[in-house]
Amino acid sequence: DHKHLKNSANMLGVTGKIFGTFLSWIIKISIVIMVLLFMPGLPPDLDFESYTLIGAHFQGPLSINGKLNNAERLFEGKLKGPEDFAVYNNDLYTSCHGGFIYKISSTKKLDPVLVTGKPCDGFHQEHICGRPLGLKFDKSGLLYVADAYYGLLRLNITTGKYETLVPMEQEIDGNRPMIPNGLVISDNTIYWTDSSTTHNLFDGLYTYLGNGRGRVLKYVIPEKRSEVLLKNIHFANGIILSKDGSFLIIAETFRGRLLRYYIR
């Protein structure tokens, strides 16, 4: 019995040491996190102003409906993270994780047409793989792509050749693009969103913790020139052009609202 009690005491001692070491590490990690979050001047050094989200009234065109309840699911489990889509010659194109842009033919055949980045080991290296987000065709059939890590691209789907129009290293009005996101095309001009000028997509959470640093820009194709139209948008995301081409609608994700910007 004495031996049993001694072994039990030893085990309790070992358990206590392990628990004490674990608790010590938890305290140290908590202190580091608190220092990073609250000490001025340390990254991420973000300004923040409080705001209130105003709920929308789901009435009229915004009324809740079930139109997509019976939609057909295509290539479930095969397409990873489809983000945007575009249609050309009855074929559907979509941007996915891994840097892939796929074509889905009218016969429901799936083919990759472009990898925007470089070979990588998985989604955790998407800054290497590439992450195509928005994509649109122009009237001549050229495909324009906004890649979160590789900038604005233009692809000839017939030859498979592509070029970079706006590289990530290019400063525009004093800031490099950090998350090229959505785009639309009108009259030889690309209107596009840059979700942040402070953080990449893999650090996207920080864009939520601080004030908005997103932008809406235009790229004049013949002049190869970019210009900032709107600043300080809290994660500028999707963008569409009105039917008459007179204004843009931009989704400001973290403020939960849509913005309208007149271009003529």
Automatic annotation (TrEMBL):
InterPro entries, per this entry? 6-blade_b-propeller_TolB-like, Strictosidine_synth_cons-reg
Cross-referenced Pfam families:
SSL_N, Str_synth
**Would you tell me the Gene Ontology cellular component terms?**
endomembrane system
SUPFAM superfamilies listed in its UniProt record: Calcium-dependent phosphotriesterase
Keywords of the record, alphabetical order, are: Glycoprotein, Lyase, Membrane, Phosphoprotein, Transmembrane, Transmembrane helix
**Where do the Strictosidine synthase conserved region domain residues begin and end?**
183-263
Q: Where are the transmembrane segments?
A: 21-42
Q: According to the UniProt entry, what is the EC number of this protein? A: 4.3.3.2
User: What Gene Ontology molecular-function terms does this entry list?
Assistant: hydrolase activity; lyase activity
Question: Which top EC class is given?
Answer: lyase
* Family stated for the protein in its record: Belongs to the strictosidine synthase family.
Protein name (Swiss-Prot/TrEMBL): Adipocyte plasma membrane-associated protein
Organism encoding this protein: Triatoma infestans (Assassin bug)
Lineage at the top is: Eukaryota, Metazoa, Ecdysozoa, Arthropoda, Hexapoda
